[in-house]
Amino acid sequence: MNTKSTGTVRHIGDGERRVRLAVAHRLAPSVRADRAEDVARSLVALHGTDPATVYLAVGARLADASGTVADVERALYEDRTLVRMHGMRHTVFTFPAELAATVHASTGLAVAAKARAGLLKDMVGGSDGRLTPEWLAEVEASALAALERRGEATVTELTVDEPRLKEHFTYGRGRSYEAEHTVSSRLMRVLGVEGRVVRGRPLGSWTSTQFRWAVAPPHPELPVAEAQAELLRLWLGVCGPATEGDLKWWTGWKVTDVRKALAAVGAVAVSLDGGGTGYVSADQVDAPEGDLEPWAALLPGLDPTSMGWQERDWYCPPELRPALFDGSGNIGPTVWWGGRIVGGWSQGAGGEVVWRLLDASGGREAERAVAAEADRLSSWLGGTRVTPRFRTPLEKELASS
User: Fold this and answer.
1) Which of 65, 133, 167, 289 is the most exposed place for a label (fewest CB within 10 A)?
2) Dihedral through CA 310, CA 239, CA 102, CA 39, nearest 10?
3) Segment 149-176, tens digit of pLDDT
4) Can you provide one Gene Ontology molecular function annotated for this UniProt record (predicted)?
5) Residue 65 neighbours by CB under 8 Å, 6+ apart
6) CB–CB of 110/117 below 8 Å?
7) pLDDT (tens digit, 9 = 90+) per residue, 218-267?
8) Burial class (CB within 10 angstroms; exposed 0-12, middle 13-18, buried 19+) of 73
């Protein structure tokens, strides 16, 4: 393989992309991490829409997965080295705390402005003028002060301190989608997008979808262009080569912002199998050195690797997608072999991990490796039932078998 550019555009084929993925995403056993923070920093962001995804994604990448739950909870709720907050595409992610300012400036500010404008428009119009911007500002300040006093609180607890949070207004009055909204539900979401509150410890176990809220730690305000360049630089280091389409999809930015950030970091264009153009960091043009051992992985629904790129043919064959994705494009639990998705997994009636290969081309070696990973996952789950928030055809079928 030609490992250096010789005046022509460097070509990175699908095979090399899979090797890069295995190393950068800490999926091969020889590159697994020791702590939750190491995993998060390696991946830039862990999907947090489904709370269990964070734990399962970390566990799949730890050298010793037995203490995954305690390690993640320590990082999130004691040391606060990880933070769950709104980020790209108006989606909840878990980031290393030091990236909060970068994420907020690069992706949150524009979304936050639209979210607040939408709340004011809907609230004022849906309350016949009874609820005004001035009224909301007063309630908002009171709620944040109460949250500061409590440290962490549910919305229900906050309404005890600030009863006006329970006020209702009509969203979409006279439309087919007309619905009653509470000020609390909309306001907390806006404050989250604005980076002023973050998700705190859940009610119940680590699989719970009911969260407390906490005041966000302070962070500096960064220039937008600077923050976008930094986020793209970090992400290319993990997911390069990536196309403009991948970058636009993952960040949620306009294509002009993507191009400006690519130029700012000095990204290098490379050719891809199929004729596309991808981009890598200037220090990652050369091919990875050394051989990588065969590896298997069981990754959760919405895993950051499975959801890392918009163009997925090089690691997820199109014929497998109907079984592995739901109707909205959310991927379920997947089985990987050698850098490609080859099947899916779920849990049986007793909590045991069950799996199926949809692509058996890896033969007995792949089956043995996947079985070992399934045993590893079953061991640390210890019978805990994890139901993906977005269920897919294969996951549901395996769960009922």
Assistant:
1) 289
2) 120
3) 999 999 999 999 999 999 999 998 888 8
4) DNA binding
5) 59, 376, 377, 379, 380
6) no
7) 888 999 999 999 999 999 999 999 999 999 999 999 999 999 999 999 99
8) middle
Neighbouring residues of 51: CB distance < 8 A, sequence distance ≥ 6? 202, 206, 207, 208, 209, 211
- Which residue matches tokens 């099947």? 343
DSSP string, 231-263: HHHHHHHHH-SB-HHHHHHHH---HHHHHHHHH
* End-to-end C-alpha distance for the chain, whole angstroms: 45
Query: Residue 23 corresponds to which tokens in the numbers above?
Result: 């190393």
User: Are the beta carbons of 302 and 94 closer than 8 angstroms?
Assistant: no
- Which two tokens mark 204? 């119940």
Rg for the chain (alpha carbons), in Å?
22
Strand ranges (DSSP E) for 273-311?
277-280, 296-299
All structural domains of the chain with their residue ranges = 98-215
DSSP conformational letter for 8: S
Following DSSP, what letter does each residue of 145-185 receive, concatenated? HHHHHHSSB-HHHHHHH-GGGG-EEEETTTSTT-EEEEHHH
pLDDT category of residue 7 using cuts at 50, 70 and 90: low
* Sequential DSSP letters for 37-83: HHHHHHHS-EE-SSHHHHHHHHHTTBSSGGGHHHHHHIIIIIS--EE
Structure confidence by residue, pLDDT tens digits, 107-129: 988 888 999 999 999 999 999 88
C-alpha 196/C-alpha 217 separation (Å) is 8
Is the Cα dihedral 53, 55, 60, 62 positive or negative?
A: positive
Tokens of 395: 């996951």
Determine the Cα angle at 146 with ends 145 and 150, to 5°: 120
